[in-house]
Amino acid sequence: MTQYQTVTSTETSLRDGTIKLHGPEAFEGMRKAGRLAAEILDALVPFVQVGVTTGEIDDLVREMTIAGGAVPATLGYRGYAHSCCVSINHVVCHGIPGDKQLKDGDIVNIDVTPLLDGWHGDSSRMYLVGDVPLKARRLVDVTYECLMLGIEQVKPGARLGDIGAAIQRHAESQRYGVVREFCGHGLGRLFHDAPEVVHAARAGTGPELRPGMFFTIEPMINLGKAPVKMLDDGWTAVTRDRSLSAQFEHSIGVTETGCEVFTLSPKGLDRPPY
Ligand code: MF3
Ligand code: CO
Ligand code: CO
Protein backbone atom coordinates (compact mmCIF):
# COMPACT_ATOMS: atom_id res chain seq x y z
CA MET A 1 0.00 0.00 0.00
CA THR A 2 1.23 3.47 -0.85
CA GLN A 3 2.12 5.57 2.15
CA TYR A 4 2.15 9.34 2.06
CA GLN A 5 3.86 11.54 4.60
CA THR A 6 3.34 15.27 5.06
CA VAL A 7 6.76 16.80 5.72
CA THR A 8 7.93 20.20 6.89
CA SER A 9 10.51 22.07 4.84
CA THR A 10 13.26 21.61 7.42
CA GLU A 11 12.92 18.06 8.69
CA THR A 12 15.45 15.38 7.82
CA SER A 13 14.25 13.33 4.87
CA LEU A 14 14.55 9.56 5.03
CA ARG A 15 14.51 7.19 2.09
CA ASP A 16 11.81 5.13 3.79
CA GLY A 17 9.62 4.40 0.78
CA THR A 18 7.00 6.96 1.70
CA ILE A 19 5.83 9.60 -0.78
CA LYS A 20 6.49 13.01 0.74
CA LEU A 21 3.89 15.77 0.56
CA HIS A 22 5.48 19.21 0.72
CA GLY A 23 4.26 22.70 1.63
CA PRO A 24 4.80 26.21 0.24
CA GLU A 25 8.34 26.70 1.60
CA ALA A 26 9.47 23.52 -0.11
CA PHE A 27 7.90 24.69 -3.36
CA GLU A 28 9.93 27.90 -3.03
CA GLY A 29 13.12 25.87 -2.48
CA MET A 30 12.42 23.67 -5.50
CA ARG A 31 11.58 26.70 -7.62
CA LYS A 32 15.06 28.12 -6.95
CA ALA A 33 16.92 24.84 -7.49
CA GLY A 34 14.91 24.13 -10.62
CA ARG A 35 15.52 27.58 -12.02
CA LEU A 36 19.27 27.17 -11.53
CA ALA A 37 19.20 23.83 -13.36
CA ALA A 38 17.36 25.50 -16.25
CA GLU A 39 19.74 28.46 -16.32
CA ILE A 40 22.72 26.11 -16.51
CA LEU A 41 21.15 24.19 -19.41
CA ASP A 42 20.37 27.54 -21.12
CA ALA A 43 23.93 28.78 -20.69
CA LEU A 44 25.38 25.61 -22.21
CA VAL A 45 23.70 26.20 -25.57
CA PRO A 46 26.53 28.19 -27.22
CA PHE A 47 29.17 25.72 -25.98
CA VAL A 48 27.59 22.55 -27.33
CA GLN A 49 29.41 22.57 -30.66
CA VAL A 50 31.55 20.31 -32.82
CA GLY A 51 34.93 19.68 -31.12
CA VAL A 52 34.00 20.44 -27.52
CA THR A 53 34.74 17.57 -25.17
CA THR A 54 32.22 16.15 -22.73
CA GLY A 55 34.76 16.87 -19.97
CA GLU A 56 34.77 20.56 -20.93
CA ILE A 57 30.99 20.58 -20.68
CA ASP A 58 31.29 18.99 -17.24
CA ASP A 59 33.73 21.71 -16.14
CA LEU A 60 31.27 24.39 -17.28
CA VAL A 61 28.43 22.73 -15.41
CA ARG A 62 30.49 22.49 -12.23
CA GLU A 63 31.58 26.15 -12.44
CA MET A 64 28.06 27.42 -13.14
CA THR A 65 26.55 25.26 -10.40
CA ILE A 66 29.00 26.59 -7.85
CA ALA A 67 28.63 30.18 -9.13
CA GLY A 68 24.89 29.75 -8.55
CA GLY A 69 25.49 28.89 -4.89
CA ALA A 70 24.82 25.19 -5.34
CA VAL A 71 26.80 21.95 -5.58
CA PRO A 72 26.37 19.27 -8.25
CA ALA A 73 24.42 16.49 -6.55
CA THR A 74 26.09 13.91 -8.79
CA LEU A 75 29.60 14.77 -7.55
CA GLY A 76 30.44 11.89 -5.22
CA TYR A 77 27.01 10.33 -5.63
CA ARG A 78 27.47 6.53 -5.26
CA GLY A 79 31.05 7.01 -6.44
CA TYR A 80 30.18 9.11 -9.50
CA ALA A 81 32.94 11.72 -9.88
CA HIS A 82 31.38 14.27 -12.25
CA SER A 83 29.04 17.24 -12.22
CA CYS A 84 26.65 16.11 -14.93
CA CYS A 85 25.93 13.27 -17.33
CA VAL A 86 26.56 13.69 -21.06
CA SER A 87 24.92 11.00 -23.17
CA ILE A 88 25.66 10.97 -26.90
CA ASN A 89 23.67 9.18 -29.65
CA HIS A 90 23.15 5.53 -28.60
CA VAL A 91 24.01 6.30 -24.97
CA VAL A 92 20.70 6.16 -23.11
CA CYS A 93 21.79 7.88 -19.89
CA HIS A 94 24.61 8.38 -17.37
CA GLY A 95 27.28 9.06 -20.01
CA ILE A 96 30.49 9.88 -18.13
CA PRO A 97 32.22 13.14 -19.13
CA GLY A 98 35.76 12.73 -20.48
CA ASP A 99 37.93 13.29 -23.55
CA LYS A 100 35.33 12.47 -26.18
CA GLN A 101 34.67 15.33 -28.63
CA LEU A 102 31.25 16.14 -30.01
CA LYS A 103 31.01 15.67 -33.75
CA ASP A 104 28.73 16.89 -36.52
CA GLY A 105 25.34 15.17 -36.43
CA ASP A 106 25.47 14.05 -32.79
CA ILE A 107 22.42 14.25 -30.54
CA VAL A 108 23.45 14.84 -26.94
CA ASN A 109 21.64 14.76 -23.61
CA ILE A 110 23.06 16.86 -20.80
CA ASP A 111 21.61 16.13 -17.35
CA VAL A 112 22.32 18.49 -14.45
CA THR A 113 21.30 18.36 -10.78
CA PRO A 114 22.22 21.41 -8.72
CA LEU A 115 21.67 20.95 -4.97
CA LEU A 116 20.72 24.45 -3.79
CA ASP A 117 19.96 25.22 -0.13
CA GLY A 118 19.23 21.51 0.35
CA TRP A 119 16.82 21.16 -2.60
CA HIS A 120 17.52 19.17 -5.78
CA GLY A 121 16.76 20.58 -9.23
CA ASP A 122 17.07 17.77 -11.76
CA SER A 123 16.70 18.44 -15.48
CA SER A 124 18.05 17.35 -18.83
CA ARG A 125 17.66 18.42 -22.43
CA MET A 126 18.80 17.26 -25.86
CA TYR A 127 21.22 19.35 -27.90
CA LEU A 128 21.74 19.03 -31.66
CA VAL A 129 25.35 19.26 -32.87
CA GLY A 130 25.74 20.72 -36.36
CA ASP A 131 23.72 19.06 -39.09
CA VAL A 132 21.53 16.37 -37.53
CA PRO A 133 19.72 13.90 -39.82
CA LEU A 134 15.94 14.15 -39.94
CA LYS A 135 15.41 10.73 -38.34
CA ALA A 136 17.38 11.80 -35.29
CA ARG A 137 15.64 15.19 -35.08
CA ARG A 138 12.27 13.43 -35.20
CA LEU A 139 13.32 11.17 -32.31
CA VAL A 140 14.30 14.24 -30.29
CA ASP A 141 11.02 16.00 -31.10
CA VAL A 142 8.87 13.02 -30.19
CA THR A 143 10.81 12.48 -26.94
CA TYR A 144 10.14 16.09 -25.95
CA GLU A 145 6.46 15.59 -26.77
CA CYS A 146 6.47 12.44 -24.62
CA LEU A 147 7.74 14.43 -21.62
CA MET A 148 5.13 17.14 -22.09
CA LEU A 149 2.29 14.65 -22.62
CA GLY A 150 3.37 12.99 -19.36
CA ILE A 151 3.37 16.33 -17.55
CA GLU A 152 -0.13 17.10 -18.89
CA GLN A 153 -1.44 14.10 -16.97
CA VAL A 154 -0.29 15.46 -13.61
CA LYS A 155 -3.07 16.69 -11.35
CA PRO A 156 -4.52 15.63 -8.00
CA GLY A 157 -6.57 12.46 -8.32
CA ALA A 158 -4.75 11.20 -11.40
CA ARG A 159 -2.59 8.07 -11.03
CA LEU A 160 1.12 7.73 -11.55
CA GLY A 161 0.43 5.17 -14.31
CA ASP A 162 -1.40 7.82 -16.34
CA ILE A 163 1.95 9.49 -16.96
CA GLY A 164 3.66 6.39 -18.32
CA ALA A 165 0.59 5.47 -20.36
CA ALA A 166 0.62 8.84 -22.16
CA ILE A 167 4.35 8.58 -22.82
CA GLN A 168 4.26 4.98 -24.01
CA ARG A 169 1.30 5.58 -26.29
CA HIS A 170 3.00 8.47 -28.08
CA ALA A 171 6.40 6.81 -28.38
CA GLU A 172 5.03 3.49 -29.59
CA SER A 173 2.76 5.24 -32.11
CA GLN A 174 6.05 6.13 -33.84
CA ARG A 175 7.40 2.59 -33.29
CA TYR A 176 9.99 3.85 -30.84
CA GLY A 177 11.08 1.86 -27.78
CA VAL A 178 10.44 3.15 -24.25
CA VAL A 179 13.31 2.38 -21.88
CA ARG A 180 12.18 0.34 -18.85
CA GLU A 181 15.43 0.06 -16.86
CA PHE A 182 15.47 3.69 -15.64
CA CYS A 183 12.64 5.76 -14.20
CA GLY A 184 11.73 9.20 -12.99
CA HIS A 185 11.80 9.57 -9.23
CA GLY A 186 10.60 11.51 -6.26
CA LEU A 187 13.02 14.25 -5.21
CA GLY A 188 13.30 17.21 -2.90
CA ARG A 189 15.67 17.06 0.07
CA LEU A 190 16.67 13.69 -1.42
CA PHE A 191 18.00 13.18 -4.97
CA HIS A 192 16.27 9.87 -5.61
CA ASP A 193 13.21 9.09 -3.51
CA ALA A 194 9.87 7.30 -3.84
CA PRO A 195 7.90 7.04 -6.02
CA GLU A 196 9.41 5.43 -9.11
CA VAL A 197 7.93 7.19 -12.12
CA VAL A 198 7.88 4.59 -14.87
CA HIS A 199 7.59 5.77 -18.47
CA ALA A 200 5.53 2.83 -19.74
CA ALA A 201 2.44 1.91 -17.73
CA ARG A 202 -1.30 1.30 -17.76
CA ALA A 203 -3.56 4.28 -17.21
CA GLY A 204 -5.43 4.21 -13.91
CA THR A 205 -2.73 2.18 -12.12
CA GLY A 206 -0.20 3.16 -9.47
CA PRO A 207 -0.31 5.64 -6.58
CA GLU A 208 -2.72 8.54 -6.65
CA LEU A 209 -1.16 11.94 -7.29
CA ARG A 210 -1.63 14.35 -4.40
CA PRO A 211 -0.80 18.06 -3.96
CA GLY A 212 2.71 18.53 -2.59
CA MET A 213 4.33 15.55 -4.34
CA PHE A 214 7.62 16.35 -6.08
CA PHE A 215 9.05 14.08 -8.78
CA THR A 216 10.84 13.99 -12.10
CA ILE A 217 9.57 12.74 -15.42
CA GLU A 218 12.49 11.77 -17.67
CA PRO A 219 11.53 9.47 -20.53
CA MET A 220 14.32 7.75 -22.47
CA ILE A 221 13.08 6.86 -25.94
CA ASN A 222 14.96 4.69 -28.46
CA LEU A 223 14.77 4.86 -32.22
CA GLY A 224 14.99 1.06 -32.16
CA LYS A 225 14.14 -1.49 -29.52
CA ALA A 226 13.73 -0.66 -25.84
CA PRO A 227 16.36 -2.86 -24.10
CA VAL A 228 19.54 -1.31 -22.75
CA LYS A 229 22.94 -2.70 -21.87
CA MET A 230 25.37 -1.48 -19.21
CA LEU A 231 28.98 -0.78 -20.14
CA ASP A 232 31.82 -2.09 -17.99
CA ASP A 233 32.32 1.33 -16.36
CA GLY A 234 29.20 0.52 -14.34
CA TRP A 235 27.43 3.76 -15.30
CA THR A 236 27.00 4.16 -19.05
CA ALA A 237 23.76 2.68 -20.37
CA VAL A 238 23.51 2.14 -24.13
CA THR A 239 20.82 0.77 -26.41
CA ARG A 240 21.33 -2.95 -26.89
CA ASP A 241 20.71 -2.60 -30.65
CA ARG A 242 22.96 0.52 -30.84
CA SER A 243 20.05 2.65 -32.06
CA LEU A 244 19.86 6.33 -31.12
CA SER A 245 18.27 7.31 -27.81
CA ALA A 246 16.88 10.64 -26.58
CA GLN A 247 15.76 11.97 -23.19
CA PHE A 248 14.31 15.10 -21.62
CA GLU A 249 13.75 15.62 -17.90
CA HIS A 250 11.79 18.11 -15.83
CA SER A 251 11.31 18.33 -12.06
CA ILE A 252 7.72 19.06 -11.12
CA GLY A 253 5.46 19.57 -8.10
CA VAL A 254 1.78 18.59 -7.89
CA THR A 255 -0.42 21.61 -7.08
CA GLU A 256 -4.12 21.85 -6.13
CA THR A 257 -5.08 22.24 -9.78
CA GLY A 258 -2.35 20.55 -11.81
CA CYS A 259 1.39 20.88 -11.54
CA GLU A 260 4.24 23.36 -11.45
CA VAL A 261 7.30 22.68 -13.62
CA PHE A 262 10.32 23.81 -11.59
CA THR A 263 12.87 23.47 -14.40
CA LEU A 264 11.31 25.49 -17.24
CA SER A 265 13.83 27.48 -19.28
CA PRO A 266 13.68 31.21 -18.46
CA LYS A 267 14.82 31.80 -22.04
CA GLY A 268 12.30 29.48 -23.70
CA LEU A 269 15.07 27.04 -24.67
CA ASP A 270 13.19 23.95 -23.53
CA ARG A 271 13.11 22.29 -26.93
CA PRO A 272 15.69 22.26 -29.73
CA PRO A 273 16.63 23.74 -32.10
CA TYR A 274 17.87 26.50 -29.80
N1 MF3 B 1 20.46 13.08 -13.05
C1 MF3 B 1 20.19 11.67 -13.16
C2 MF3 B 1 18.71 11.52 -12.95
O1 MF3 B 1 17.98 12.12 -13.67
C3 MF3 B 1 20.96 10.87 -12.18
C4 MF3 B 1 22.39 10.87 -12.42
S1 MF3 B 1 23.17 9.99 -11.19
C5 MF3 B 1 24.77 9.94 -11.71
O2 MF3 B 1 18.20 10.89 -12.06
F1 MF3 B 1 25.44 9.54 -10.67
F2 MF3 B 1 24.86 9.15 -12.76
F3 MF3 B 1 25.16 11.16 -12.07
CO1 CO C 1 16.29 12.45 -12.48
CO1 CO D 1 18.65 14.03 -14.18
Give the CATH class: Alpha Beta
Number of domains: 1
Low-confidence stretches: none
User: Averaged pLDDT, please?
Assistant: 98
Tally of helical segments: 4
Structural class: alpha+beta
Strand content: 15-25%
> Count of DSSP E strands?
19
Query: How far is the N terminus from the C terminus?
Result: 44 Å
CATH topology: Creatine Amidinohydrolase
| Helix residue percentage | 10-25%
Major pleated sheet? 3 strands, antiparallel
SSE order, one letter for each helix or strand:
EEHHEEEEEEEHHEEEEEEEEEE
The Cα radius of gyration reads 17 Å
What is the second-level CATH architecture? Alpha-Beta Complex
Give, in spatial order, the strands making up the sheet with the most strands.
Answer: 3-7-8
> What name goes with the CATH superfamily?
Creatinase/methionine aminopeptidase superfamily
Ions, cofactors and other ligands present here are:
2-amino-4-trifluoromethylsulfanyl-butyric acid, cobalt (II) ion
Global outline = globular
